[in-house]
Amino acid sequence: MTCSPHDLSWAIGDRDRVGLVVFAGKPVVKVPLTTDQGFFRMSLDEVTTLSAPRGGSLMGDAALARYPTRPARLPGLHRAFVHESRRRWGRPEAPCPIVGLAPGGECWGLVFEVPDGERPRVMRALEKREAAGERRRETRTVETPDGPLPAFVWVSRIDQNPPPSLETLEASLRAAHGVVGNGSEYVRGMIHAMQLHGISDTLVDTLWERLRG
Description:
By secondary structure, the chain is α+β, with helices and mostly antiparallel strands. The chain has helices spanning 37-45, 61-64, 119-129, 166-175, 183-196, 202-212, and strands at residues 18-22, 28-34, 69-85, 96-112, 135-144, 147-156.
């Protein structure tokens, strides 16, 4: 069947229970089953190509999804757009800014409990994903609800140039288009992943508001 989402409204009866799930890299429930037809149609009108994340793993999802997690604060490092994607999310002539961990501030995220016997396999997967040439693995102390814990983190290898302005980041993200998706979709994926765990980041949130405006 080929039609726009708005064309589906003819198939919905006044007493039907309806729900809305959008798909890309992962399914996202936009409307749970409901009899509220007005809310459903309003949500349907808001669906765009950015309504679901497309690919990309965040906070170790691909390698770590099976392990218990807890929220953690990492002092001394913060999220910053200090890397570039020239294939997955951008192109050589229009690279996509990619997040890493830079010195200063703090970063809220997740700490994963990986059993000792499974740690070598998980570390190999993470080392490959985290691009060892651009990041170095360090052991840092993170703060959790159960007290401080040692954790592996990947810290970005960056130069001393000043960080790009919000205007420059926004322009670069809007211009980036790669084989997985575009710059706006990359940021939307981060927002979605953080929201799933009750995490927010001022820089990422601000950029998303500018991109969606």
